[in-house]
Amino acid sequence: MRVTYKRAQQLLQQGTFYPEELARVLGTTEQHLFSEVHRGNLKADTFGGDILRFTRRDVLDWLARHQSVRSD
To answer: pLDDT value at position 3?
Structure first.
């Protein structure tokens, strides 16, 4: 997963993301995001087990943790 400057700008400006939006912005798949949620690594707003959206803060926190794991 690689976040470009343009994608980073969108992450910083938008407050919430639907799964398909976030996958596009991050250059990953919805399935990867769902897996991260089900593993407890990424927080999401859910309803009845369905993932509805992600908040900017939760995404940025997840990215920061993901980056620190990759650089260790």
So the answer is: 64
CB 22 within 8 A of CB 59: yes
For residue 26, what are the domain limits?
A: 5-71
Is 42 in contact with 62 (CB distance < 8 Å)?
Answer: yes
- The strand order across the sheet containing 16-17 reads 16-17, 50-55, 45-47
The total of structural domains in the chain comes to 1
Express each pLDDT in 10-66 by its tens digit.
777 889 999 999 998 888 999 999 999 999 999 999 998 899 999 999 999 998 887
* pTM, entire model: 0.79
The whole-angstrom separation of Cα 14 and Cα 36 is: 21
CATH number at residue 49: 1.10.1660
